[in-house]
Amino acid sequence: EIVITQSPATLSVSPGERATLSCRASQSVSSSLAWYQHKPGQAPRLLIYGASTRATGVPARFSGSGSGTEFTLTISSLQSEDSAVYFCQQYDNWPPWTFGQGTKVELK
Amino acid sequence: EVQLVESGGGLVQPGGSLRLSCAASGFNFSTYSMSWVRQAAGKGLEWISYISSGSSTIYYADSVKGRFTISRDNAKNSLYLQMSSLRDEGTAVYFCARVTGYYDSRGSYYGGLTDYWGQGTLVTVSS
């Protein structure tokens, strides 16, 4: 089973500043990594797939990079509506699909 | 608009059973694989089961194998999860999710992407 580790657990960022979230896989997942945004009481929302492709309707301030075992989600200019938990998921080697523990992004 | 709406959650005693449903709309349900994922309070997400579009391929996480059964009714656009012998650790929000695939710019196919999720239904296992 591929273990996914996210860091940091919590990130406090001022509005307009950049947020950088990390996701590390215990073995290579090629580019089969997705990022999701999850707000309380809502359905998780797909942001990025294929490590770097934005999903339909996702604002350009969200970008993903990386391949193999190291991945990054960047929010270039944090908006108030971006406060949420962000988690990554590998879909290279399944089952099982595995997830990171999540990074909570909050406004400073 | 793709919508997935879970129902059937509630309070159940340890050892009890519960059936979750997921109503799908806004897409051709019969052509997509589906999964169930759960999240216990303060914990990360855990994939628990997968079913292919025609129900020919089914997978379970080891943690639920032998106790949970996934099924679907394509005529009713519905996905189900029958849970039995529930344990305390089964307390979680249960999400249904659509599974899809795509081609990258080089024409390589990638399957297994979870693209749409429901809001979840809470299952509490407690005496």
Terminal Cα separation of chain A, in Å? 36 Å
Global geometry of chain B: globular
Order of helices and strands of chain B: EEEEEEEEEEE
**Category by helix and strand content of chain B:** mainly beta
Report the count of strand segments of chain B: 11
Give the assembly state of these chains: heterodimer
**Low-confidence residue ranges of chain A:** none
Q: What's the rounded overall pLDDT mean of chain B?
A: 97
Radius of gyration of chain B: 15 Å
Helical stretch count of chain B? 0
β-strand percent of chain B reads: over 45%
String of helices and strands of chain A:
EEEEEEEEEEE
Discrete helix count of chain A: 0
Q: Helicity of chain A, in percent?
A: under 10%
Helix-strand category of chain A? mainly beta
Give the biggest beta sheet of chain B.
7 strands, mixed
Largest beta-sheet details of chain A: 7 strands, mixed
Q: How far is the first residue's CA from the last residue's CA of chain B?
A: 40 Å
Q: Mind explaining what this structure looks like?
A:
The complex is a heterodimer of chains A (108) and B (127). Chain A is mostly beta strands and 108 residues long. Helices cover 0% and strands 50% of the residues of chain A. Chain A is built from no helices and eleven strands. In chain A, the strands form two sheets. In chain A, strands 2, 4, 5, 6, 9, 10 and 11 form a seven-stranded mixed sheet that branches. Chain A starts with a strand and ends with a strand. Chain B is mostly beta strands. Chain B is 0% helix and 56% strand. Chain B is built from no helices and eleven strands. Chain B has strands spanning 3-7, 10-12, 18-25, 33-39, 45-51, 58-60, 68-73, 78-83, 92-103, 109-117, 121-125. In chain B, strand 5 and strand 6 form a beta hairpin. The mean pLDDT of chain B is 97. The A-B interface holds A 31-32, 34, 36, 41-46, 49-50, 55, 87, 89, 91-92, 94-102 and B 4, 35, 37, 43-47, 50, 59, 61, 95, 102, 104, 110-120.
